[in-house]
Amino acid sequence: MTAAELQSLIAAGLPCTHLVVDGDGRHWSAVIVSAEFEGKRLIQRHQRVYATLGARMQTDEVHALSMQTLTPAEWAAASTSN
Question: Which InterPro entries would you find in this protein's record (predicted)?
């Protein structure tokens, strides 16, 4: 799997206002910004992303995924503080 393929999978299952995926084919990192994260705890946000990947997480197609999951307001605040 490529970063573009993984990014497409996440985007197909979760409406994102910003999405960047990087990795080496097994170990991935992602910055995911979605309004669907509003009012959700970190674990709930991660579970939502895992749900978009479905069996790919169980079959080791995506071995590891490190995520930064933000709401649009959190993303805007983080972007202006840099």
Answer: BolA, BolA-like_sf, BolA/IbaG_stress_morph_reg
The fold adopted by the segment(s) 3-80 is GMP Synthetase; Chain A, domain 3 (3.30.300)
Over the stretch 18-63, which tens digit does the pLDDT of each residue have? 999 999 888 899 999 999 999 999 999 999 999 998 888 777 778 8
Three-state DSSP at 17 gives: coil
- Sequence-ordered list of residues with C-beta below 8 angstroms from that of 10, at least 6 positions apart, any chain: 16, 19, 21, 30, 32, 49, 52, 53
Rounded to 5, what percent of the chain is helix, strand, coil?
50, 25, 30
